[in-house]
Structures are given as structure tokens and as C-alpha cells.
Amino acid sequence: MSETETSAGWLTREQLRDARERLPIVYVSVVPVRVDERGVVTTIGLLLRASSEGTINRELVSGRVLYHERIRDSLIRHVEKDLGPLSMPRIPLSPQPFTVAEYFPTPGVTPFHDPRQHAVSLAYVVPVEGDCAPQQDALEFSWFSPDEVREPTVLAELANGQSALLLQALAHLAV
Amino acid sequence: MSETETSAGWLTREQLRDARERLPIVYVSVVPVRVDERGVVTTIGLLLRASSEGTINRELVSGRVLYHERIRDSLIRHVEKDLGPLSMPRIPLSPQPFTVAEYFPTPGVTPFHDPRQHAVSLAYVVPVEGDCAPQQDALEFSWFSPDEVREPTVLAELANGQSALLLQALAHLAV
Amino acid sequence: MSETETSAGWLTREQLRDARERLPIVYVSVVPVRVDERGVVTTIGLLLRASSEGTINRELVSGRVLYHERIRDSLIRHVEKDLGPLSMPRIPLSPQPFTVAEYFPTPGVTPFHDPRQHAVSLAYVVPVEGDCAPQQDALEFSWFSPDEVREPTVLAELANGQSALLLQALAHLAV
Amino acid sequence: MSETETSAGWLTREQLRDARERLPIVYVSVVPVRVDERGVVTTIGLLLRASSEGTINRELVSGRVLYHERIRDSLIRHVEKDLGPLSMPRIPLSPQPFTVAEYFPTPGVTPFHDPRQHAVSLAYVVPVEGDCAPQQDALEFSWFSPDEVREPTVLAELANGQSALLLQALAHLAV
After folding, report:
1. Nearest-CB residue to C97 (from B21, B67, B96)
2. Which DSSP letter does residue A39 get?
3. Which has the closest alpha carbon to B94: D123, A148, A170?
4. Is residue A140 helix, strand or coil?
5. Chain B nearest C-alpha distance from C80 (Å)
6. pLDDT confidence band for A8 (50 / 70 / 90)
7. Which of chain B's residues have a Cβ under 8 Å away from the Cβ of D170?
8. How many CB atoms lie within 10 A of CB C2?
9. pTM score, two decimals?
10. CA-based max dimension of chain A
């Protein structure tokens, strides 16, 4: 999970670091998909990013919900931040996420791990209808068929338990 | 619930009547909506139809799932049958319905009642993006804001418990 | 999926066979589980049964919803029929299934296949708190941990796509 | 929403107040229910509490998720804190909430309002099987049938939009 909106969150970098040691942080996770006219998910999109530890990982779109920000606005912001202003996300109608991923700073409590913080991430599948391009520090954004994305080699490129979240999304979509 | 696709179901009218006295019938119910670019439901669409008993009722889109028909294909077929071929429904990605309405031939078993049959109806919210017009025997198709559609006078125009289903959809959508 | 309640369905065996060639049949699928006091699923139960073709398969609990039968009553009936009258199922509060499995008589339309019929199966996870024992024609009923049940050798013993349904349940449960 | 676990949250009262002005806070909301053996919700429980402004309100069980606390452990803690150590909550198997309520410090952004903070509350229906008694500062804990709890006089006693959340729960439960 990348975190670049520190300043917009009305927190100094230091204040955010302090809060992260004391409070669970609200996140959204997005599985970006392309769908056909019958609503069938045809491809799933993953970012490729170099982590601060120097490894290269695939990633879902995700990020922090800001103070006084609606969840649906946070979904739009993070999709457009990661996939570009022309990505045209179709935001879910209902606030009900398909799951909630609990990222713990301690590995092993759940399948999800985030060394920086305890994050409670509301997960949604979001069709994107426009042009998607990797933004900022992302190296690449690629589409995979459901079968391709389930390949062990692809799943292994997702860090911090995001492969579990992706498999949960595929199960929810029944693809 | 209207039922006009008897012939397409590879059943004579008589065979369908017989089956309806002996088996629960698989249905889909659709709450057609318009949404804004943030995914917020702005209006809900209801059909106006004269029933066979001579009353005039508001109705959701609904109908029978045919033999060898996928649920998503049934959703497309019923929306296009009732709202026209240009209605452009956006079919849900997941097969999970927001609820299941059990219509019983005996009133009072559930909020849902269908004198003709025991129907098990999978209910979905379906955004329509195109032009909608009442088809066949429908008198009218009208859009209501969430507040308007909750008016007791509007809810009272929905027969057979469909007002309960509509309220469940609004609750699911949190509007 | 076993089918033994023909007589109780107010259909002769012949009438049911006829209906199955013409109408989708309403089913329920149950993933029986044991849970701990924190609501965490600890084990998943699978039946072992000899099929009519002479193969031996693992199976979820499932069966037909009868005419004029509520879904929740059908869930109780099928769990007690397959796991015994002392199994004490805790029926879900909401009618919303975690998924809907569409079994087609033609293989390959969906992951789910039932040579006898087109079945639309509403799938629920059902904790059982009492004593479970295989009934009737079942050879065995066994509990598996989430990790054990995901073993390819166990998944391969589930026929007709039930392994896909089981994996969807595990994803929904986040175990 | 009451907030009494400040000290357990590894935050001084001042630090928590600061965080609340800068970050959305993770909450859980619980609709406590009694169910019959068929899984039908028979009654819904509401707390009666005097607010700091001197009004007397009905309330759902709710509270903050602590740093390094699992959602399911937070659900247990808040139910036992509000309904007593013998209340025996049956925690949901899946992390998927039936809805997410976004409480804003500014009234009118959503139906939910919390003057103290921006809270993102994951909402669950939780059957309680044991003895429930109001704890701490609560005046009363009472059971209502679904019809009783929908009475305008009862709904009016719920503050900060919790009546909307309760109605969403009833819709999800189809009672």
C-alpha cells in the first residue's frame, strides 16, 4: 500500500506516524476490473511497484481514507491517483464491501500485514471503463485474465497478503 | 410480476401452470436505478401496469429464469423486455443478490405474495444508462428520487409485497 | 447433490423428471462448519458418498427446496437429513446467500454441473453445534481444517464443481 | 456512541481528541438480537442512556476498534461491555459487514452524525444468547419486536442517525 497523500490529510508526516502507532487507520482496497456487457469480469488490473525495501511487487489499488472524506470519494481519488484521471471508475452503489482486510503490523495475526500500521481496509471491486496508466512511482499497470491472475507466479508477486484479498475478490465474483 | 415468456420457456401454458402448482419457480427481481458519477443512486424506476384484476399497480422489473438460462442473461432479458432494447442495463458483477424474496401463493407466510405460484426471486439493483420506455402492456415507466419512492402513497401502489423489496433495496444502497 | 425427498415434494418421480427437463430447480447448498467462541471457523464438514456411477465423492450438504417450503426450513431439513436430527444447525439470520451456484446439465457453462438438471442453488455457511453423523446412503462425514480442505487431493474428491463453491465459502469467511 | 475505553487504547484523552480531529476513527456497530431455532430474529435490543447533553436516547451497541485489536474481538468486547459478561454474543463468521455507517462531525453529509469525530463504523447483527443487563452508565436495556422497533416513537429515540442504521439492519434481515 502506498501512502502519498500525507499533506492532504491535515497531518504532518510526524503526526501521521504517531497516529499509526496508536490507532487503526481506515483504508480502502480496490480490485480494478474490466467487465463485458453481461457484467462478467474479463480482466483484473494490477500495479507493479518498487517497494522501499527494493523489491518489486504487484499491488492492488489502495490507500487511506482522509478525515471528512466519504468512502466513495476515497475510492475515486485512489483509483484516479493510481490509474490516472481518465480511468473512469464505476463506484459501487452500496457501501457494503465484499470483505474487510485487517492489516496488522505484526505478521501472522491475519493473512494481511503492513509493517507501518494497523489498517482496516474496506475492499471493493471497481470496474474501470477508461484509459488506465500507471501514475507516480508505479512502474506498470497490467491486465490479467482470472486464470492468469491465479497463477502461483503472479500471486507470489503480491506482497503483504494482497494475494489473499485478490482470491477473495475472485471468489466473490465467481470467476 | 408479469409473465409473458411462456413460449420461450419450452413449456406450454398448461405445463407451466402444472409446474407452478408443484415446484418453486426461480425468478429475478430488478430495482432499476440511475446513478451519478460517484455511484450514488439518484432515482429508482417503477413500472405502472394494469393487473389482470383491473387494478393499476407500480411494479419492479421481474420475471422467470428460463431453463438453461444464466441469471445474468435473465436479468438482461427482463430489463430489456420491460424497459426497452435501448435501456443499457449494467449487470451486477457478483451473483450474490442483495436479498432473496420468497413469494408464496398463500398470503402471510412472508411479506411477498404471488397468487399464481411459489416463486424464489433473486433480487438485484441494476443501473440502466440508456433510454427507458415502457414496453408491451406497461402503461408507464417513471423515475422517483429515494425520498419520493418512500412516500406511503407510492409504496401503496406496489402490490404483492414489492414495497418491502424496494425498501430492502434502499436500505442496502443506504439512500 | 443427492435427491431423496421426491415423494415429499408432491411430485411423482416422473413428474419431477419432466420438470427437470424444462425448468430451473431451486436448491440450497450448505457448507457445514464448526466455529469457536470468537466466530472463527475451525473446521468444515464434508460428506463421503458413493455416486450412482460408482465413484466415491466428497459432498457439501444440498438439496431441493420444496413447493411451499421456506428457504430456512429447507436448510434445516437438508442439514438434519444429511447430518442427523441431533446436528443442531444455526440457520443464517439473513436470506442473502454468500453466492448463487448455477448448476447446468451441460458441462462448461459455469463451474457447476449437474447432469440431471438446471439447478439454481442458494449457498449458505451453516454452523452445526450438535452431533453429526452420516445418514442414509452417506458413507462418512468428516471435519477438515481450512488448510486441509484446500488440499488439492481433498478438492479433487468434490464433484460437479462443488470445490469451486467450497473455495468461495472459504473466501467469504476469510479463513 | 459511548466511548469509555480511552485508557485501554494506549492514548491519553488528549491524544485521542487530537486524532479525532484529523483521522477517521474505526468503529463497530452492533444490532443485538434474539433469534428462534429457525434463525428468525424475534427481538432487537436497544440501550437507554443519558447523553452528556442531558437528553435520554436509545442506542445500539457500538464503540471504537483499538490499536492491534481484531474486529471480532472488538465486537465481543463492546457487547460484553454494554450488555454484560454473561450476554454470550455469537460473533458473525464473515468479516463482511451488512453496511458501513459513515458518521461525520458535520450534520447532513450522511444520515449519520457524531459531533466528536469522523467515525467509519462497520455494522453487524449479533445474536446474544445469554443474560443481558445494562452496564455502566446505561439506564436500561430492552427488547423490541421488529414491529415495535419500527414505531416512529421508538425510532425517534435513537440519536445521530442510528435509526437509519437500525432500519438497514431490519431490511438486511428481511424482518
Report:
1. B96
2. S
3. A170
4. strand
5. 21
6. very low
7. 171
8. 19
9. 0.93
10. 48
